[in-house]
Amino acid sequence: MSLNSNYIIQRPVVTEESTIQTETHNQYIFRVDPKANKAQIREAVERMFHVKVLAVNTMNYEGKWGTRRARGVRGRRPSWKKAIVTVRSGDKIELL
User: Whole-prediction pTM value?
Assistant: First the structure.
C-alpha cells in the first residue's frame, strides 16, 4: 500500500517537552498517519522540509474512552500515531 507523502505528516506536536527536544537533541515530533511506516515518514519529512533525517521513532496511542456530558453516552477518541524525527545537526525545521 502506498500513502501520499502529503497525507503522512498530519501536524507537528508543539508542547513544552517537544520544544526542549528540538533545542537539545535536534528532534521534531509529528502526528502522523497510523498506517505509515518509518521509511515513509522519513521520506515525507525529507521531501516536505528539505532536511536529512537520521532516525525515526514511532509510538502508537490508543484512543481514550469517555462519556459525553449531556447524555452519558460512551464514546471513544480515535487512535493515533506519533513520530519523533531526528535530523542532522545544522538542519532546522521551521514549524511556526
Answer: 0.86
